[in-house]
Amino acid sequence: MTYLSRIRINPLRKASQKLLANPRALRGAVVGGIAQDPTEERILWRLDADNPRRPLLYVLSRSRPDWTHLVEQAGWPGADGEHAGVRDYGPLLAQIATGREFAFRLTANPVQNTANPDKPTQEQQERVANGTTKRSFRIGHRTVTAQLAWLLDRTVRWGFEIPESRMSTPAPGIAPLNDPHHGGEPAREVRIIARKRHSFTKKRNARPVVLHTATFEGHLRITDPQVFTDHLLKGFGPAKAYGCGLLTLAPLPRHLLHEGGH
Amino acid sequence: MASSEEAVLLLRLAGPIQSWGDRSSFNRRDTRPEPTKSGVIGLLAAASGRAREDSITDLAELRLGIRVDQPGTLLRDYHTASDYRGRPLPQAGVSKKGVQKPTSPPKDTYVTTRFYLQDAVFLAGVAGPRPLLETLDHAVRHPSFPLALGRRSCVPTQPISRGLRDGSLGDVLAAEPWLASEHARAVHEREHRTTLGSWISLSATLEDPEHGDDILNDVPRSFDPHHRAFASRRIRHTWLKVPTGLADAGNAADTTADAGHDPFALLGW
């Protein structure tokens, strides 16, 4: 069984201020909600702060979680409404089939692995000079272009495709911005709605962990249900412990549904 | 008056242009933003074949409610009038014989300004005794004289009558689905930067003899050209929650706090 949870976070609580600022602290709170072997299973989570005054925490877990501690420390324990909704993920997994289209959202950590960085830091230069590198360097993509390209490069491997964005035909004499006939890549139905740089330490006086995250939102079409389901449950890209890699699906907006048959 | 015999006749007042004047009688012809009672009663009287001199007291007793489905936009028409025989126009003053004197120097053209509502749609509810409304419903579907929306040049689109309903004026007007065109719906969505839900709030003016807090002087006493007179009526302005006729399919995602993306929308099935 797999469960998707949605927990309301009250940003005015003392405890939640630490959780919202530090992905490592939030991971601790998420893992604390899993009763059995929390270190064994891959827990995916994501913080959605569309409305910064009412952030929502989404968690995908194999076993049924309990969020009483989060509601007590960082929620509204006495308030009306659903503090923490937990739903079976089965109905969604049952809908995954080739050609199905959904709206999606994904917060990911786009990175590249390279042995020869363009602009190596002092430390990287020393490591290359000493020959002490065992593996290539993992460098975060920091521009919108690179982050989008990172996602579009991987969609085939992940079992889905992002349709070309629907644009009206340009007026006569005006060339489209990204004309495939002129060597450009066609624009896709995806955009980055938030980008963030996280920096936090795991130990006192240790070097900080630095993460560049990007939140993608768009429209996808499933091409390989098996591979897609696998990734949906295991997560997309690196930094899954720190709130990256949970891709959620939602119904397409109504204006896209009408033209879904094209 | 037994309440069981009360009914409401619904009329859809829509056309390329409409003009509902209530006070102007000279060179500047205004329009109200909503249909007037004299205009609607004139339409009903024309449909039932009454001459201008005939009594309309039974029609004037009906209560009128107007719902604004599409407010439309104001059209200003620069309008000129001349004598078709090429003679100079007469002036306002009269001679000893009681004949209008010619203008001097001769004036051949009047300039008048006329205002119209273009692309407006209204839903009018006429409340009154059921037998009378049944005859009016039949008359609107089989009119004796050509019908017009406030002025003879303003031709209505069909169908006008939407039939009789039971219930109070406000409830009946609120229950009828929104009559806006597909284009008007798209414009509304674009201007309000929203996707339409299953209901929309529309403004309405309801005749309310007891609790009305505003007064309009548009109740005709007679359409006789020699005895034109108007009485007043008490009205009340309100907002009605009207169904748009759209399914609730897209609304689950719209109503949640996380308006943009709701992963739970797919899990409820």
TrEMBL record, chain A:
Pfam families: CRISPR_assoc (PF08798). Transmembrane segments: none annotated. Residues 111-131 are annotated as: Disordered. It comes from the Bacteria. SUPFAM superfamilies: CRISPR-associated protein. SMART domains: CRISPR_assoc. NCBIfam families: casE_Cse3 (TIGR01907). This is CRISPR system Cascade subunit CasE. It comes from Saccharopolyspora hordei.
Automatic annotation (TrEMBL), chain B:
Residues 84-106 are annotated as: Disordered. Keywords: Antiviral defense. One of its GO terms (biological process) is defense response to virus. Pfam families: Cas_Cas5d (PF09704). CDD domains: Cas5_I-E (cd09756). One of its GO terms (molecular function) is RNA binding. NCBIfam families: casD_Cas5e, CRISPR_cas5. This is CRISPR system Cascade subunit CasD.
